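Sharing in case it's useful to others searching the archive later.

Someone asked me privately for the predicted structure of PABS domain-containing protein, so I'm posting the question and my answer publicly. Question first, with the sequence:
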Amino acid sequence: MTDSRRLRVVHEAPSPFGTVYVVDEGDQRSLRFDSAEGTLQSAFLRSDPLAITTSYVRVAAAGLAFTRRRERMLVVGLGGGAFPLMLHRRLPRVRVDVVELNPVVVDVARRFFGVRPDSRLRIHVDDGARYILRREPPYDLIFLDAFSDQGTPDHLKEALFLDHVRARLTSEGVAVLNIALETPRDVEARIETFARTFPGCAVLRGTPETGNRILVGTRRPLPPEPVFRKRMGQLARELELPALHHSVASFEPVRG
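And my answer, the predicted C-alpha cells:
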C-alpha cells in the first residue's frame, strides 16, 4: 500500500462515479479514484511530462505491432490520458478519439495532466458501449481501458460489446484490452470471452516486477512470435521508446 505520509493531494473532486483525486508523490503526479491511496489510474513525471513512466502504457503500445496502419485510433477510458497522449505525440499523423464517461475525469485530465484536445485528439463524454455504435470510419486500434476501483463496468465485459468492437476495426486492426487491474477471479472469464470474439488473440505479459497483462485481438490470425518480436523492435524505433522492445516478457496465443 502506498505510504500516505508521502502523498500530497493536489485536487479532490466529487463525481457521479466517486471522488477523483490528483496526488503528487515526489516528482510523480497520479490520478486515483475513491481515495488518495486508491489504485493508480495514470501517472506522469512533472519534471519530464513526455516520459512514459507507467509500465502498462508500454505493454499496451505493443498492440501497435499487430497492425501496419497508423491512421485512426480509439481509446475507451481517458484517465490521466497517458496512452492517448503517447499516440498523439509520437505518431504525428494519427487521429485519436477518446471516450470517457465521467466529465470530472475529463476536466481533471485537462487541468492537471496536460491533455489538450485538438484536431487530432478528440475527447467525447459518452458511454463506450454507446459510442462504439456510431456510424463512423473504422479504427486501426481500439484500446479498452475503462476502469474504476471496482474494475471494468459490467456492460463493457459482455460478448456483445466485444462483437461491436471487432466490427469497428479495419481488416488489419487490433483491439487491446487492459486486464491488469481485474480481480483474479475475473481474469480467466475476460480472456475466454475475448478469445471467442477475435480469430487472433494473445495475452501479453509485462516484466515480472510490473505484473501487467494486456489482451490483443485481431480479425486475422496472429503473426508468429519471431515476427512479433521483430515488429516490436521496429516499433520501439518508430516511437523513439527503446524500453518498448523489452516491455513484453511473454507472448501467449489463446484459442477461442
